Amino acid sequence: MRRPASSAARGAARGLLAVLLALALVGCAEEPEGIRLRFLDRPDEGGAWAEILSRFEERHPEIDVELVEGPTSTDTREGMYATTFLSGEATYDIVYMDVIWVPRFADRGWLLPLDDRFPEAEREAFLPGDVAGSVFEGSVYRVPLRADAGVLFYRSDLIEEPPETFAELVRLCERHQDPPDRHGFLFQGQQYEGLVCSFLEVLWGHGGRVLDRDGRVVLDGPEGHAALDWLVDLVGRVTPEAVTTYQEEESRHVFHEGRALFLRNWPYVWSKAQAADSPVRGKVGIAPMVHAPGGESSAALGGWGFGIASSCPHPDAAWRFIEFATSAEAMRILNERNGAIPARRALYRDPELLRRHPHYSQLYEVLLRSRPRPVHPRYAEISDAIQMHVSAALVGEETPDEAIERAGDQIRGILDR
Ligand code: GLC
Asked: Which residue has a Cα nearest atom 1 of ligand 1?
């Protein structure tokens, strides 16, 4: 049986507690006044973040910013941010966001509105699509850093003129391919967000859409059927079966090794292709994505930028970092170290950047015309429906007709809920 503690013992314990408390307080007072902020991104390949963070910390030694290196796919990182916000943990103070996450994160109240810190006059310095994609219900939640738009890379040493139509692309592949040494056309075919981008560019190029202007689902109209038919028909003909395992980097590697004629990807690929040790250095051209005859080329608007988590205890410090990380200086570092395309318009007139990347003036036009994926707080679910069924069609589990009908119905269900 436990006996109650004597009053002398209780007194000694209280004394000890007081001493420990005093020591703890002294400890706190002596601790340097540091602020630590965290954000999540993919691994820091090329060391761009390391350089940006060290330059920032030199100027702001009181603020320590930490990059948490996560998985490469945007979907998985979105899930990681969402999980911590849902559980109320303040794991991430700064949110490095794909443009497609903004409506959901803002609608859920996970982000601080930045209207006062990032007023309209300052937004004009950035590409208009990136700004539009940072706004939700009239408030801005993200400062753009890295712009993105889907483009078609081609082997300029083998292909004289890049194709304009879907049929021309296939014809050129059939004429010049030599699989498995040299495939025709590569895209991102794994079941994840990149597949949605690849598919939407084909859908738009066929004149189709996911939602019409009134928000009704029209994905499974005739254009949707034609688009998925076209994509599925490529596999095993001009596109390797392994495409269903490709994210951006897997598809880039095959192209980089000189084993494909065409690649749909984001503009970062170009800088890597021009690296001194690249097997395709000087042999790569960039063109807008192909389209149906009489239709127009469409690029998916991608891109990344920074917001502040509502749970962040130091929003002013977070803002100081965001100001620096979205400056022209930081954009140049990201550009140089991993080919990221800047979101500030002025850099597309920068003589130094244009000298190193002569195609930037053409790319600028593609960026201006790029199209957003459906802008909706439930976009992640809409995307899941597209991913699931387009992928099922690519691997032959559903016919293209079944897949497009099912995706359409599933999205109707999501929007009706
Ligand atoms: C790129 C784009 C992003 C897109 C992702 C898909 O990172 O910038 O917007 O969602 O690719 O994989």
From this structure: 302
With a 6 A CB cut-off, is 408 part of the ligand 1 pocket?
no
Domain 150-300+374-416 has CATH 3.40.190.10: yes
Question: For the segment 78-124, what is each residue's pLDDT rounded down to a tens digit?
Answer: 999 999 999 998 899 999 999 999 999 999 999 999 999 999 999 99
Alpha carbon 389 to chain centroid distance? 21
Whether the predicted pLDDT of 2 surpasses 50: no
The whole-angstrom separation of Cα 226 and Cα 233 is: 11
Ordered by start, the domain boundaries in the chain are 35-148+301-371, 150-300+374-416
User: Residue 417 has what pLDDT?
Assistant: 87
Q: Mutation test of ligand 1: which of 40, 45, 74, 373 has the most ligand atoms closer than 8 Å to its C-beta? A: 74
The residue behind tokens 């109240």 is 109
pLDDT of residue 22: 43
Q: Is the CB of 266 under 6 A from ligand 1?
A: yes
User: What is the pLDDT of the chain when averaged over all its residues?
Assistant: 93
Give DSSP secondary structure letters for 153-200: EEETTT-SS---BHHHHHHHHHHH-BTTTBEEEE---SSSHHHHHHHH
Residues 6+ apart with CB under 8 A from 405: 220
Residue nearest to atom 9 of ligand 1 (CA): 302
Report long-range pairs for 276-279 (Cβ below 8 Å, ≥24 apart). Answer: none
Q: How far is the CA of 194 from the centre of ligand 1 (A)?
A: 6
Tell me the mean pLDDT in the region 148-177. 98
Which among 231, 222, 165 is positioned nearest to 196, based on CA atoms?
Answer: 231
Cβ–ligand 1 distance for 74 under 6 Å, the answer: yes
Percent of the chain scoring above 70 in pLDDT: 92
105, 148, 366, best to mutate for ligand 1 pocket (most atoms within 8 Å of CB): 148
Q: Are strands 341-342 and 135-136 parallel, antiparallel or unpaired?
A: unpaired
Distance 221 CA to ligand 1 centre (A): 26
Please give the Cα distance from 133 to 71 (Å, whole number). 23
Decide whether 35-148+301-371 matches 150-300+374-416 in CATH topology. Answer: yes
CATH-assigned architecture of domain 35-148+301-371: 3-Layer(aba) Sandwich (3.40)
